[in-house]
Design brief:
single chain; alpha/beta; four-stranded mixed beta sheet
Length: 346
């Protein structure tokens, strides 16, 4: 019901959350297409204005802050003006930043748009794996931030912050401390198989199939293979415009029982009929679903409210943080009636 969902969002206030992942600055350069260049078949653009957004793990932290959670971001930055301004912006938004300064330059992704159409993207910054000193520093940041935390999110964008050695170092400690640990990956340098024993994995169908090199089996069988390989308790698989599937692994089963009796699946159709900008909808889903689980909500409630956050995000230009007021507005307008019923944890 609307009241139950609204009460669950209120329970998110003040929840202590930790986000671990790369910081990326997303820049949008809005342009006017004037002519075709005389020297070759390429478009001539005239700049109109630019906007910048905190991206990657930082926008996940800002989504959590938008629901009034107590958020710490553990990340890697450069010793440059872009990083200093990013820390100031995040701090002003209520996010505590713990960062190693081991990058030569801040990771930036610049997108060039005409109207709402993205023409091309320019990536600046390289993968910088943690050296032993930085790894120890990050591990200490994570361990300190995880004390009394309700949830922790690993957001691996493949730029070197999250590594196998780092996870080996911190997981035995934080798994004992933190009730809900979730993870997602993005990019060719990251892999879901690094994350062992987490409560929720939140990838796209393509990411799962690429991880397991399985492009022929049905989705249920592929997800079961993922959960078996990682020991994850559940997975929320996004299907683009189709919506998502929520999978819960059933631990109690007879020996050699088939996977379809050990895996519970529920499909949730997309809650947005119009996509303005898909950037960041997966981040919004991961952030809100993780916070709902950390606040005692059921997996169904996490999937639904996460999907609602993603639906709001895709209707905004740029990676903008979701707020509790936006979610409450959609809930109270009756949007949730389009979904199947949602079971909430007590």
């Amino acid at each position: 019901s609307s009241a139950a969902l609204s009460n669950l969002l209120l329970r998110c206030r003040g929840k202590k959350m930790v986000v671990v992942g790369d910081y990326i600055l997303d820049r949008y350069h809005f342009c006017d297409a004037t002519t075709i260049a005389s020297e070759g078949p390429m478009m001539t653009l005239r700049p109109l204005h630019s906007e910048q957004y905190d991206g990657a793990a930082a926008i996940i932290a800002r989504h959590l802050g938008g629901l009034a959670a107590d958020v710490t971001l553990v990340t890697s930055l450069a010793d440059d003006d872009i990083s200093r301004k990013a820390v100031a912006r995040l701090t002003e938004a209520g996010v505590t930043v713990r960062a190693v300064r081991q990058r030569k330059q801040t990771l930036c992704k610049s997108r060039y748009l005409v109207d709402q159409t993205k023409l091309f993207k320019l990536d600046e910054g390289t993968t910088t794996p943690l050296d032993s000193k930085s790894l120890e520093e990050v591990a200490i940041f994570i361990e300190e931030a995880s004390v009394d935390a309700a949830g922790l999110i690993f957001a691996d964008f493949g730029y070197g912050l999250i590594t196998g050695p780092l996870l080996d170092r911190v997981m035995p400690i934080i798994r004992q401390r933190v009730p809900i640990i979730t993870a997602d990956v993005s990019g060719q340098q990251s892999t879901l198989l690094r994350f062992k024993g987490v409560d929720l994995l939140c990838p796209t169908e393509r990411e799962v199939r690429q991880t397991l090199n399985n492009f022929s089996s049905g989705l249920n069988a592929v997800v079961y293979e993922l959960l078996e390989a990682t020991g994850a308790k559940s997975a929320m698989i996004t299907l683009g415009k189709q919506g998502l599937c929520m999978f819960d692994q059933q631990r109690h089963s007879a020996p050699k029982e088939s996977w379809d009796r050990r895996l519970r699946a529920a499909f949730l159709p997309a809650l947005s009929t119009h996509t303005l900008d898909p950037l960041g909808c997966g981040d919004a889903l991961l952030a809100i679903a993780s916070l709902i689980l950390a606040s005692g909500g059921s997996s169904q409630a996490a999937a639904y409210l996460g999907s609602l956050a993603a639906a709001i995000e895709v209707q905004q230009i740029g990676n903008q943080p979701i707020t509790a007021d936006q979610l409450l507005g959609r809930i109270n307008s009756g949007v949730e009636s389009r979904s199947q019923s949602v079971r909430l944890a007590s």
